[in-house]
Amino acid sequence: MSMFDSAGIEGRARRFGSDVSTDYIISSRRKKETIDTDVLKKHIFEDIDPGFFGTLKPNDIIVAGANFGCGSAMEIAVTVLLSAGIRVVVAEGFARTFLRNAFNNGLVALTADVGAVAEGELINLSGLNTGNATVRRAGEREIVCEAIPVFMLDILKKGGLVPYMKANKRFIE
Amino acid sequence: MSGQTIAEKILSRAAAKQVRAGDVVVCQPDLAMATDGSFPMAIDYLAQMEPDSMKPAYPEKIVLALDHYDKSSGPKALALQDRARAYAKEFGLVLYDTGEGVGHQLMLESGRILPGMLIVGADSHATTYSALNCFSTGIGSSDLAGILLCGSMWLRVPETVKVVFEGTLGDGVSGKDVALLLAKLFDGGKANYLALEFHGGALDRLGMEDRIVISNMAVEYGAKSAIFPFDEISVAWAPSGGGRAVRPDADARYSRLVTIDLGQVVPQIARPHSVGNVLPFDEVENIRVDTVYIGTCTAGRYEDFLNVFNIVKRNGGLSPHVRLVLTPASLAVQKKLEAEGILDQFARYGAVLQPPGCGSCCGTAGYRPGDGEVVVSTANRNFKGRMGNANSAIYLASPETCASIACSGYMAKAGAA
C-alpha cells in the first residue's frame, strides 16, 4: 500500500503538542554515540514521552501542534522517525529545517489544522499523489492540508533527495 | 511589480533569475559549512547519491568545523569525527579542527563572509552570518550532500518581516536581550519560513556583537535568516572589501512590520524549557543558581568575556556556591583573553576554563550539569536535556546578566540578593 495511491493510508494518530524540538525527537546525547537509526529509534521522544517507541504500531501517524521539529537542524530527527516506521507527520506547523529534512528523506510532512484530532484516533490520509492531501476522520469533517509545491512533491514521490540525485545528478527545475 | 527585499535580491543572484517570495528555486550557495555533528551523515548521503565518486563539485566552497565533539565525547563520537576529518583532508575542504572553536565564530573571524552572499550551514545557527548582510540559513545533511555533488540546493524564497529598531540600548542591556525579546514576540515559531530584515535609526548604534546575537537566535523562533544592512559598523568584520552590500528596494513588499524601541528593552531571561519562555530579569523567581555558563556561538566572543570579567571584578568575585564555566568561542578569543591576563584573573576567581567548542551547549562534550542543577547560560537553547541532562534546568540570559547572577548566586542582580 503506497501513500501515493488514491486510497491513501489509514493509521492511528499519535498526538504531540506544540514546539516539539528535534532534541525531543532524539536527544543529541544519544546521537553522539551512534548515527545508526536502528539503534536510536528505541529512544525517540524519550525526554517527553518515555517508552513511546514500545507503543508504536504499523501506520501510526504523528499528529502535532505548531512548530514541530524546532531547534537543531539535525536530520537524524527525521531519519530516526522513518526507521521507527513512521511515514507521515501532520502538524499545525513545522520548523523549516525539519520540513526540508522531511521532504529530502521522503517523510511526508503535512501542514493542517489538526488540533481536534485525538490520541489513538483512526485517521485516513489521501490525495498525496496530487500534493493536495486531506485527513478524514470518522464522523467529523475532513481536514484539508496545505498543498505541497510541485518541485517538493517530485522529491517526495521519488523517496527523497538520495533517489532523486541518484537518478538526476542535479536539480531539475 | 513591487521591488525586492534583501532576501529576494540575494536569492535572485544565487538562482540566476528574478525570484519572488513563495517561489521554490534552485540556487548555488557561495559557501556551505558543516560540523562533525552533521557532516558524517552528509558523507553517507553522498555515497548513496553517487556511489562512483565522493569528490565534491566545489571543495573551496565547503567549510568543515569539528566543533561538536572532543575527547570527552567518547570513542564513537570521535570515530564519526575522524571520518569527517579524513574526507575534508582528502578533498581539500576548508577544515577547522577540534579545539579551534565554534564553526560559526571561525567563519565570522575568517573574513570569508562577504555581504550579499548566500551561505548555508548544516547547523541551524548558520543564521548567524546574516548579521553581515548575507542570506544565511540552516540546512540538513542531505542538502549538504546535494551541494557536495552538484553545487546546488533548493530553497523556498521567504516572505520578509521588516523589523525597525528605534532608540538606543540602555546600560547593561545588549543584543542578547533584544534577541530574547524577539523570541518572546515570535514565540511558537511565528517567524517560521520568514526572513527578518532590520531597519531603523538605531542600527547606527548597534554593534556587530549585538547584531550577531540577534541573527544567531532568529532561528529559535523559526526565521530562515535575519539580515542586517552592510554599513560602517559591519565593514570591520569584512575588511577585504569584497562582496557587495545589498539594500532592499524602497517599494519592497513585507509581510509584516514590527517596530521595537531599544530604549525600552530591559534585561531578559528565558526560563526552562523553551527559548520563548521569556520574562524581564527582575520578574523571574529568585532561586538559587548553581552554575553560570559563558560561551557558545551566541556569546563567547572577546567583548562578552570582557564584560563578564568587569562585572565579576566590580563585585569582588563570584558567589561561593556558583561554578562559573567559561568556553571561548574560538582559540583566537582565548588567546586574546590570555594575552591580556584576563583568563588568569578569572582562574583566581575560581572560574573553570574549557577549550573552545560547542560541547556543553548541546551535551556532546565537556561540562555537563548534574541532576537538579540550575544553570544560567549565555547560550541560545534551553530545551529539557539540551546540556546533556534532562534533570537540570537551563535559563538563558545575556553575558552581563549571567555575570551579575554569578556574583549574587541567585536569580537576582549582584548586590540585590
Topology:
The complex is a heterodimer of chains A (173) and B (417).
Chain A: E1 9-15, H1 22-25, H2 28-31, H3 37-40, E2 61-64, H4 76-83, E3 88-91, H5 96-105, E4 108-111, E5 122-126, E6 134-137, E7 143-144, H6 150-158, H7 161-168
Parallel strand pairs in A: 1-2, 2-3, 3-4
Antiparallel strand pairs in A: 1-5, 5-6, 6-7
Chain B: H1 6-15, E1 24-27, E2 31-35, H2 39-49, E3 62-65, H3 75-91, E4 94-96, H4 103-110, E5 118-122, E6 135-138, H5 141-150, E7 153-156, E8 160-166, H6 175-185, E9 195-199, H7 208-217, E10 225-227, E11 256-261, E12 268-270, E13 278-280, E14 291-295, H8 302-314, E15 323-327, H9 331-339, H10 342-348, E16 352-353, H11 359-362, E17 374-377, E18 393-396, H12 399-408
Parallel strand pairs in B: 2-3, 2-5, 3-4, 5-6, 8-9, 8-11, 9-10, 14-15, 14-17, 15-16, 17-18
Antiparallel strand pairs in B: 1-7, 12-13
Tell me what you see in this structure.
The complex is a heterodimer of chains A (about 170) and B (about 425). With about 170 residues, chain A is an alpha/beta fold. Chain A has one domain: Aconitase, domain 4, CATH 3.20.19. In chain A, about 25% of the residues lie in helices and about 15% in strands. In chain A, strands 4-3-2-1-5-6-7 form a seven-stranded mixed beta sheet. In chain A, strand 2 (about 60-65), helix 4 and strand 3 form a beta-alpha-beta unit. Chain B folds into two domains: about 5-260, Aconitase, domain 3, CATH 3.30.499; about 270-410, Aconitase, domain 3, CATH 3.30.499.10. Chain B is about 30% helix and about 20% strand. Chain B has helices spanning about 5-15, 40-50, 75-90, 105-110, 140-150, 175-185, 210-215, 300-315, 330-340, 340-350, 360, 400-410, and strands at about 25, 30-35, 60-65, 95, 120, 135-140, 155, 160-165, 195-200, 225, 255-260, 270, 280, 290-295, 325, 350-355, 375, 395. In chain B, strand 14 (about 290-295), helix 8 (about 300-315) and strand 15 form a beta-alpha-beta unit. Chain B is globular, with a radius of gyration of 21 Å. In chain B, about 60% of the residues are buried. Classes of the chains: A alpha/beta (about 170), B alpha/beta (about 425).
